[in-house]
Design a protein that fits this description.
The chain is an all-alpha fold. It has one domain. It contains five helices and no strands. The chain has helices at residues 12-47, 51-87, 92-96, 99-133, 141-174. The longest helix has 37 residues, at 51-87. The chain is elongated and about 65 Å long.
Amino acid sequence: MEGTVGPHMVDSSLVVAVVLRFFHIMFGIAWIGAVMYGVGVMRRALGRMDVAARKETMKKLIPVVERYLPGSAAMTIIFGVALYLYMGSFNPANLVGTGWGLTLLTALVLALVAFALGMVFGIGSAKKILAHLNEEACSHGPEVGALQKRFNLTQFINLGFGFAIIALMVIATEVLTL
């Protein structure tokens, strides 16, 4: 019997919503948590290393960042869109005609902007930094410094977007209803 929840029966729509919410939250934690770790820990730790150690660390770290951040960001957005559509019953009146729907749509737009900024300025800068680090004798110190500043600024901006998105999620789930 669909819709009845007993000790041995679970509503399939509840399972779908829980699975979508779980993966959306898990990937969101991975994305924003990695950005927060980069801003709060890695930046400070790298600044305390000697130049040779920093170079070797960055050569190993950047390829991981280039895959991890875009992947976790994309999966956060994909599961978020699926959850938004599912919870809004694929009904435009729910999705854009309610405070709940508009709040989540705003969060989606912010997430897409953060993703685009991260890809263009963050990952783009990281790839250029790595290319310089892999040169036999890099004589582009000022250029690498500018790229590092751009990468760091992008991380700070994305962290701000992440906090705003989290605030909108809290508002949508705790204050607004369909």
